[in-house]
Amino acid sequence: MFSSILDNTPVLIALIDHSFNFMYVNPAFARETGRTASSFIGKNYFEFYPDEKKKSLFQKTVKTGIPFYFQAKPFSEKENSSKEAESYWDWSLVPVKDQGGNVSRIVLTLYNVTEKLAAEHELLQSEEKYRSLFEAGSDAIICVDVQTLKIQDVNQAAIGLYGYTRAEMLNLSAPDLSAEKSRTKRSLKNFAQSLETKTDKKSHIALRYHKKKNGTVFPVEITARHFCLDGKKFNISSIRDITARVKAKEALQQKNIALNELIARIEIEKKRIKEEFAATIAEVITPVLERMRADVSTERYAALLESSLKTVSSAYGLNIARKSPQLTQKEIEICTMVRNGLSSKEIAHILNRSIQTIEKRRKIIRKKLGLEEKSINLATFLKTYDRQSF
Question: The pTM is what?
Answer without folding.
Answer: 0.45
